[in-house]
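Two proteins were folded this term; both appear here.
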Amino acid sequence: MTTTMQSTSAGAPKAWPRPIPDSSPLHWVFRVIGVAVIAAIAIYIGLNATPSTLGNVTEACILAIAAVALNLLLGFNGQISIGHSTFVGLAAFAAGYTVNFWHWNAYWSLVLGIVLCFLLGFALGLPALRLKGPYLALVTLAVAFVWPTVAKKFLEQKVKKNSLKGTHLSPPTWTGLVSKGKDARLDKAIFLYWCGIILLLVAYVVVRNLRKSRIGRSLVAVRDNETAAAVMGVNLKFTKTITFGISAAIAGTAGWLSAARLDVFNDTSFTILNSIKYLLALFLGGAATLLGPIVGAFAYFFLDDYLRSHAPHWTWLPGQLSKGPIASFLLGAIVIAFVFIAPFGLVGFVKDQARRVFIVTPRPLRPALTPSALDDERPEESKGE
């Protein structure tokens, strides 16, 4: 009897983790709940937050859009770029100059910025056909270093004060928000907040659709093994260059939003330090995941903002830690510790914990048809022939 009981318990299925088929009703319930929670938080902040809080969330959206763009290139395609600050700066300069000197509509400047960034990204994708790894990173690093010099020369020739004004994007009349009066500051912050949310959502949808498409599968194949991808029929030249261009165009939307957010900016506004922030946000959230760059960008921005606001007043810190740039030191220490705790980012950490409760299993493939089954599926007319 003991043997029978042991065999029965050994053969019993595990209670946890529970398998949940992909795209099953229960899986869709979890998706709908997640989207509803995020939408409720966004609406609550938009209706109740102060202008400063709305401005901070908009800044986090700018960082998240740039991280999403970098994730498409580095996370899914495996091409290293340290020059995305150049694309953000180019779009911001294009918006600031065309709006203030050519009197363009700010939304047309967004189109121009996207086109310019796509062309520049496509051109920078050409070296990726022969270079990869650290050598490609050096090329993009050089571009990031050169950009401030180019921007400075441009400002010296075109602008007297060596700085560009922002686009001062005003809310359209149909929104019910005012651009002048006592409520103008709050209404402008609300408008820019929703612009940031919408642009971030668009960037996410674009990357998600690309990742789920045939092009997305080609990106991952090139990242994992270029030789095998080429043998399978993937066009390496097209895949690498077009990915660089799309990633740069998405980063350009972050630059356009920066131009709408900032009062003035110059050659020091978009440097290699910005590119490092994009990389940091990407890896904090989790590279090669759809939500990783967004989660990482918000976590990095608000953690950095909290430390800058509160850490200088922490008198309990021992010795010299209470002096100097303590916020930067603590942020670096937290990032180093986080790498050991969650090497795959916040999203990867949450997924690992969730797998202890349930596992999303892929949809089963359609079984191959036997010759007799194929004959049964043929129409009656063809059977007679």
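Next, the second protein.
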Amino acid sequence: MTPDYRQIIDGETWAFIARSEACYPPDTATRSVAEQRDFYNAMCRAFHVPHPPGVTACDRMAGRVPVRDYSLGGGAAHILFFHGGGFVVGGLDSHDDICAELCAGTGFDLTAVDYRLAPEHVFPADFDDAMAAWEDLGARVSGPIVLVGDSAGGTLCAGLSHALRGAARRPSGQVLVYPALGLSPESTSMELHAEAPMLTRAECLYYRKIRVGGDASLLDDPRCMPLRAESFAGLPPSIVISVECDPVAGDGRTYATAIANAGGAAQWRSEPGLVHGYLRARHSVERARVSFRRIVAAISALGSGATPGTRSNPRRSEPQRR
């Protein structure tokens, strides 16, 4: 049965959804990738707010990968941030104000990564850029590094954490916000929220296909789809935040449970009544504002060496069928 989103989602969030959808024409799905990027960038500009006082930003190259460094004057840890956008849209500007506010809220310096996008560059190009950014940052800073990403960016964080399990230098933690980690069409959340506002099952499968250039065998690589891993041992302390009205909601719960079952530290939360992409609503929707504060607190805790418990908030979201 399709959820009654009119009952689940509050008026503030519906206003955010309407404002977001106003940036997209009805035939967006049939437009070229270049046009889709233009629509997405326009939407991000519509929600953009000025940087908090004192935060500086500077673009540079991490080897071959463009990055943007944010600073409030240092801190006990460093954030390595990967933006969402289905591996097709987004970049340094799309999440610029979000990154500046994470820097200000935690006091940690932050490096945002402009990894290559599909369809021009299919997996593992995005992962290779994530690894290059990690190696560059590791050579520059000696303190803890916390991986943070939303949606596709959360996927990259988890893939990177998997690849670094046996490395001498590993992430001190990861914070994943509405991540897509398996994208199984048969998962409970994919079926339940197939027509959710802001992200549908059809769109998830479109992004999954375009990321790998149609080569489904690449989806078995845990650097691409982290839930395909054979073992979840050795992963860093993880805080995973899903949203109730989202086809990928089950991915986060399944992932956190797998880490905990393997003896690791993980905490999962489902944010009630929120939708995919809600980070842009943090200034207009109270639920999103509160959740963003929790994200800042989670990053601060992991950067300071705290270990999350294995508590979860299972309200309404369902685990994947494995």
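The first strand starts at residue 56 and ends at 62. The longest helix spans residues 286-303. These notes refer to the second protein only.
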